[in-house]
Amino acid sequence: MQSTQDSVKSSAKVTIADVAREAGVSKGLVSFALNDRPGVAADTRARILQVAEALGWTPSLRARSLSSKRSFALGLVIARDPEVLGSDPFFTSFIAGVETVLAPEGLALVLSVVPDEETELQTYRTLVSDGRVDGVFLSDLRIDDARIQCLADLGLPTVTLGRPDQPSPFPAVSIDDTHGIAESVRHLAGLGHRRIAHVAGSPAMLHGSRRQEAFTSAMRAAGLGDGQIVETDFSIAAGADAARRLLSQPEPPTAIVFANDPMAIAGIGVAQELGIRVPEDVSITGFDDIEFARYVYPALTTVGATPLVWGRAAAATLLGLIRTGGADDVDLPAARLIIRGSASVPAPG
Amino acid sequence: MQSTQDSVKSSAKVTIADVAREAGVSKGLVSFALNDRPGVAADTRARILQVAEALGWTPSLRARSLSSKRSFALGLVIARDPEVLGSDPFFTSFIAGVETVLAPEGLALVLSVVPDEETELQTYRTLVSDGRVDGVFLSDLRIDDARIQCLADLGLPTVTLGRPDQPSPFPAVSIDDTHGIAESVRHLAGLGHRRIAHVAGSPAMLHGSRRQEAFTSAMRAAGLGDGQIVETDFSIAAGADAARRLLSQPEPPTAIVFANDPMAIAGIGVAQELGIRVPEDVSITGFDDIEFARYVYPALTTVGATPLVWGRAAAATLLGLIRTGGADDVDLPAARLIIRGSASVPAPG
DNA sequence: TTCGCCGACTAAACCGGTATAGGTTTGCCC
DNA sequence: GGGCAAACCTATACCGGTTTAGTCGGCGAA
User: Fold this and answer.
1) CB pairs under 8 A between A and B
2) Which residues touch strand D (CB under 7 A)?
């Protein structure tokens, strides 16, 4: 209140040189103190940090990027038809989870939405050659996924969402979704269903084929044969088509296990449209537990995925990989079946 | 195939200095040629670019950022409860639209998902002080929105999604959503409905209050009084609650206009749960035309928004603002009513 | 012929950090 | 008391572009 002090003397950004001068040390030492590295006396370090604080100095991200060859950002590339993407709430929740660990670290998330795989590979290359990110999340793993080799070649630190079907140099953060499918089948079998069908996701996608396998083996284990399977691309439209096909048969299944919630919800809609009651005439289960699942009628019996938790774990793992050069695989708790109203005992006969 | 040529001689990144040497000019001139500025002879420029091409030179984004004080990235901050966010497909489509214009320009999108407004303001400040972005999109405009002043103070180029209710220094990219609401009311009135209710979004949000006003004035214009209105926060849960409240009344409305699709879909669920038939006993309309709208039963009569187009327009406008220092407001074509099965003539009586 | 000016181009400073090769102290040991 | 190493710290060269202050040659006007 009493001094016409500096501190507002100029709106020019304060730099490391200002801090160094004010603290009576060299730029280099300020840098060392900031990144707390050995070789700085404790009291000197304290003084430097205090001066920095007083001057309100924030090291320039840009300068840091240039000299340290890091970018302080992580990347996520999503390859999907935007139209289809919209109905899948996975990514928004996943990203929210990622943010919870990035934000406190001062890291940013660079997001790309691209239409196809070729563009996706190109995007990774650009991301690397621009030095835009320090690492990426690899999602929607596919069978024999070309992106793994691409990212390995690029030398870009990566965390895969799920364990690839091929040798991979990257840590995987996975959630066991086969358990939930098996639980679904057991639940339905326990209710008395014998003709259970599966609307599978794309067999080219790892979680699609894995859930399908889980379905088959659970069916066999329950002594129900292989069960009828219709493959889709995970889209709502495809799910609706599959449901229509299954339910229009002479002897339709009494229960359908859908590989994701959007398709299951479309399935409920198709059944109703056909005058088939859910769950009296056909039981339906989904996978994901998206918010809609609780609010459609009947409420969807589904398997609860936790994209937010997944995002958090993936971000923590990627951060560890980048900082220490290595990271272990992480296995999240298996997704569990959530019982609501869309599955019940089959109609007699 | 025949020459053991260079080009792979060293994996070291080729820099502007390499290009300059190879082309026999100075670094500065290469820079001038690259950013095609006056003062370079046409043939010299051509030669430089050709050498750059031959050497496979890509200017370092980091170096460019440092010296030019730009970051070649745009930002989008979303403040929402991640749980609620997931059910709203708006952003994924919007982002996809944004990407279609950013990608060809070599720009990246930095995305932040934050839990509340205070964090959002802080995020903008960090984004600016880190020089992380060259501009941002401001979405989910609120009444008397504090973010506008904040962004103006920060001097961050901004495009608002919709026209704010206060003086704003920023260009607005808007879509008229009142038209669609009015169309909905007229459609329902034309079918013979007299008791029409509105499940409004948050009155604190601009599109919430605007749609509500549009509803009210359309009702009056149709000579149907003010109509019953329930305010929500746009969330599915709130929409379900509102529907339950409305439909449990002694004299429930025969039609409900929902401020968005997720709430409308929840509304259909609630009605079915209560044993109220849609559309026989109650007609329902939504807003957004999310993908689910086509696949629930009955298919949702709703107003078609076009987030992808919006994203494209917003990105183009923001780009223009950043590059030329100014940009005009853009008005997208009004959202139109899409008639499906969830609204029909009311039951007699 | 000479001056002035303009367009093309060069050299070097600069952006704001990081990294590294020295320089001082200081303390300890023989 | 000289020798030496560890602990601290400084000076300076980067990182790879952009930008500015000049340099230089040539041409039109005086």
Assistant:
1) 181
2) A 24-29, 32, 38-42, 44-45, 63, 66-67; B 13, 15-17, 27-28, 30-32, 34-35, 57-60, 62-64, 66-68
CATH architecture of A178-305: 3-Layer(aba) Sandwich (3.40)
Q: Which CATH superfamily is domain B16-59 in?
A: lambda repressor-like DNA-binding domains (1.10.260.40)
Q: Residue type at B263?
A: M
Between CA B54 and CA B96 the distance in angstroms is 33
- Residues in B 17-56 with any Cβ partner in A closer than 8 A: none
Is B106's CB within 8 Å of A130's CB? yes
For B73-175+307-332, which CATH superfamily applies? Response regulator (3.40.50.2300)
Task: Please tell me if residue B15 touches chain A, with a CB cutoff of 8 Å.
Answer: no
Q: Which two tokens stand for residue A89?
A: 């709430």
Q: Is A84 strand, coil or helix?
A: helix
CATH class, domain A73-174+307-333, is alpha beta
Picking from A339, A219, A199, the residue whose alpha carbon sits closest to that of residue A279 is A339
Find, among A213, A122, A127, the residue nearest to A176 by Cα.
A213
Chain region(s) in chain B for CATH 3.40.50.2300: 73-175+307-332, 178-305
Please give chain B's pLDDT, 349 residues, in tens. Answer: 333 334 444 456 899 999 999 999 999 999 999 998 888 899 999 999 999 999 999 999 999 999 999 999 999 999 887 666 666 778 888 999 999 999 999 999 999 998 889 999 999 999 999 999 999 999 999 999 999 999 999 999 999 999 999 999 999 999 999 999 999 999 999 999 999 999 999 999 999 999 999 999 999 999 999 999 999 999 999 999 999 999 999 999 999 999 999 999 999 999 999 999 999 999 999 999 999 999 999 999 999 999 999 999 999 999 999 999 899 999 999 999 999 999 999 988 6
Nearest CB to A296 within list B83, B113, B269: B269
Size (chain B), residues: 349
Minimal Cβ distance to A66: which of B66, B106, B273: B66
* B25 φ/ψ sector (left φ>0, alpha ψ -120 to 50, else beta): beta
Span CA (A260) to C1' (D28), Å: 80
Residues 142-161 of A with CB under 8 A from B: none
Q: What is the dihedral of CA B22, B26, B30, B35, to 10 degrees?
A: 180
